[in-house]
Amino acid sequence: MKKLGNLLRKDIVLGIKDVFLLLEIVFSVIFMLVLLFLIPEEIRTEGHVYIWDRTGIIEDFVTDYVPDHEQSLGEYFVSNRVDLIAGITDDRNAVGLIINAAGQERYEVEMLSQPYTKESLARFIEADMEDLMNILQPPMGRYPADVYASVRVEAFQRGVDEIQPFNQSLLAPVIVFNIGLIGLFAMVSLIGQERMDATLRAYRLSPSGLGLFLLSKNIVITGVSILNFSILYLPIMGFSGYLEALSVMIVTVIAMSSIGVALATFYQGPLEAIGWVFVLMLLFALPGVSLLNPVFSPGWLQAIPTFHSLFGLDAAMFPDNNADLIWRSVGILALLSAVLVPLTGVLFTSRIQKEA
Amino acid sequence: MKQLWRIFLFDIRMSFKNFMGAYLLIIPMVILLILRSFLPAVDSSSANFAVINEGPNAVDRELIATLDEIGDVSFYSTIEELEDRMAAIGEIEGLYWDPVAGQYVSLVEKTGEDNELFTLAARYIRQQYLGDNYPELPRMVSFSAAVPPELSDRTEISPVATMGGSLFIVFISIMTAFMMGLAIVEDKDQGTILALRISPVSSSDYYIGRSLFPFLVTIAYSIIGVFMLGLAGINIMQMLTVVIPSFATAMVLGLFIGGMGKNEIEAMGIGKVSAMLFMFVLVAAALLPDNWHWTLWWMPVYWIFDALEEVFIQQADWFSVGWKSLLALALAGGYFLLLRKRIVRGLGATE
Question: How far is residue B119 from each of residues B30, B77, B104, B105, B186, measured CA to CA in Å?
Answer without folding.
Answer: 40, 22, 12, 11, 59
